[in-house]
Amino acid sequence: QVQLVESGGGLVQPGGSLRLSCAASGTIFSINAMGWYRPAPGRQRDLVAGTIRNGTSIYADSVKGRFTISRDNAKNTVYLHMNSLKPEDTAVYYCMLDLSSPSGTRDYWGQGTQVTVSS
Predict the structure, then answer these.
(1) pLDDT digits (tens, 9 = 90+) for 105-119
(2) Mean pLDDT, range 57-66, rounded to an integer
(3) Could you give the C-alpha distances from 38 to 6, 30, 60, 110, in angstroms and in order?
């Protein structure tokens, strides 16, 4: 059974950096698409950064130039590199992976990791 485990959140000062990880375990054939989300006012979650099936990466305007999404296929792990963090980046961050496994192809979600940007 596929499971996602997130790590890397924490407390950081404005201007600091963090790297979030999302590790997938179980029998995985492929990671087809991936994304990092955070809650938004009036909406459940907004996409912060993602990579779609053709390999194109997309970013929310608020994080362009500061955040980078990447992956390590050998480890079935997806990362969110967060630089120049601002207080408004404070949120619980959730990873989503579109995975193919013996159970078929579907979206899986991580448990969330708290990022707090404060002096």
Answers:
(1) 999 999 999 999 999
(2) 97
(3) 13, 24, 11, 12
